[in-house]
Q: What sequence folds into this?
């Protein structure tokens, strides 16, 4: 699932984006999961943040280290230990709300 989220998270930039994430959540429709190209640069790091919280840093490193042959949803399902993508999406949306609330 390579993309802008991994470098954003591992470089510590995700925390600095909290105000922009709060604005994005207030002023637009709910973001897609995984984030669309339009939102990936802003929200991608939050997926890695959630993954580290729930599964640990090795899971985030594994997700960042390769492209999944079946696409990003399959990569996320694998990263979150086979959990249904809808459940992970709900957890991510709750995580986004917490991140935005901390802004």
A:
């Amino acid at each position: 699932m390579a993309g802008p989220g991994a470098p954003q998270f591992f470089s510590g930039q995700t925390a600095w984006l909290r105000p922009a994430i709060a604005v994005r959540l207030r002023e637009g429709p709910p973001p897609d999961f995984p984030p669309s190209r339009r939102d990936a640069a802003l929200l991608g790091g939050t997926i890695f943040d959630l993954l580290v919280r729930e599964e640990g840093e090795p899971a985030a490193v594994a997700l960042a280290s390769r492209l999944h042959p079946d696409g990003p949803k399959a990569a996320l399902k694998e990263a979150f230990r086979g959990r249904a993508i809808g459940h992970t999406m709900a957890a991510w949306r709750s995580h986004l709300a917490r991140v935005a609330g901390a802004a």
Summary: The two ends are 27 Å apart (CA to CA). The chain is about 65% helix and 0% strand.
